[in-house]
Amino acid sequence: METAVSRHERAMSKGLLYFKRRQSRVDVRGFVGDIADGNFVLGGTVEDISFSGFKMSNLPKNFSAAHRSYTTVISGNDKHFKCVVIPCWTKKAENKRSVEVGFKIIQASWEWTEFVLHVATPLAFAEDLAFQA
Description:
The protein is an alpha+beta fold. The protein contains 2 helices and 6 strands, in the order H-E-E-E-E-E-E-H. A 6-stranded antiparallel beta barrel has the order 1-2-3-6-5-4.
């Protein structure tokens, strides 16, 4: 059975971006993330979130979005969420000293889902009302 990581590795080896965003992302403030692969831990700023991913900025420019999974702890508002993620895209920041990385969540806690549901639902509801008006 093919896993999300193996599909991602196959797509990246062909130069493809396999994962396409299915949910809209919600901007968050005051959230940080620590990302680890077993050999190092790097910190960054979590910019936006969704059920299935997030964008992290202020990662060192030498961060290699390698074809592997990373363990991440996202923290903010006295909450901590552990996720297993894989990078989907990388972009140099405007200051050229750091990078932004989009991550796909391949394993998350139930608390993460509840948190995103709590944060995203009011926004989605407001967007639906604006669209109908």
